[in-house]
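Progress report, Aim 2. The chain analyzed during this reporting quarter is listed below.
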Amino acid sequence: MADRAQLVLEDGRIFAGESFGARVESVGEVVFNTAMSGYQEILTDPSYTGQMVCMTYPHIGNTGVNDEDIESRRVFAEGFIVRSRSLVSSNYRRTKTLEEYLEGAGIAGIAEVDTRALTRHLRTHGSRVGIIAPADRDPAKLIEKIRANPPIVGRDLAGEVTCDAAYPWTQSSWDLGTGYGEKPPAEAKFKVVAMDFGVKTNILRQLVDHGCAVTVVPATTSADTILAMEPDGVFLSNGPGDPEPVTYAIETIRALVGKKPIFGICLGHQLIGLALGARTYKLKFGHHGANQPVKDHATGRVEITSQNHNFAVDLDSIAGDVVATHVNLNDGTNEGMAHRTQPVFSVQYHPEASPGPHDASYLFDRFTTMMRTGRPVADEVRARIRTWAFD
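Predicted structure tokens for the chain:
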């Protein structure tokens, strides 16, 4: 019989459930993810550092876990919350169960939670810090532990998850029958430096697929060091938490604008915004899932996108040489921007997906076009359509 457990939120709301994974107490900001699959990729996304993930899809774990569908070096989510965990897993690539995976990673899970009620609570009241603990623990004392936990706002989480030293990346995307490939840097058309703020490996694979020789560098790498590597372009990765405390990266980006083509995703998008004079703010409950509709202002095209962020760029603060390029159709928040005169652009969502749709994979082609021509995104878009938001 499963051990009883509880999820206690900072506002006193308690959700009963059953323990699975590691039998430990775990504290983190509780967010919900609306993806129907991809739980292994979600758990290993460094952007979830400091957060516990509630899956809105009710049945989780039926395909187990394998050795390939991971997005980083380890599990970064602080805890995992599901309605119903599958007690049987079956897939030809499976190597272990979800519960075995969480237990081996030391990550607490709680199942049999009313995830619909939890999601409604978070949508109404906003993201809440919570704690997963055995059912016999005193909720009042658990709330004290929650309040002692450092908040995400104002905390430099990117510096906690970044790599220790620069390294090359040559792995390309997975293929049925052959698995992941390798592309030697000598065959690449472009040399890219990727700043690691919590990068997902499928982003790096997409860059390799698009002809890039990739060198990943720590978040603290200076502009002078990057320019000395003589890249054709600079990529700014996704990552966790609040962008404002990552001041060293903002300074680096500001120094790189006008010197090298730059493409940013998620936290990289927010850091570009701050470097160019925009503001950022925390969303009520964030965007987490694989089904977020985003409209491209230039083409009118709607993309279904994969997203994972709790902060956004303030649309009203984008002015001067920066223009908004994409918008979220659910809440009207900014999803992309570009510089009018310099080869710099970024998106808030994840064009590499994993998990999620591939509607936005064209953005990697846009980056390589920008590196090849050295021209702003506006020039590439004008070549395809009659009107453009820059005009």
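Residues 168 and 215 are 4 Å apart (CA to CA). Residues 362-373 form the longest helix (12 residues). These observations will guide the mutagenesis work planned for the next reporting period.
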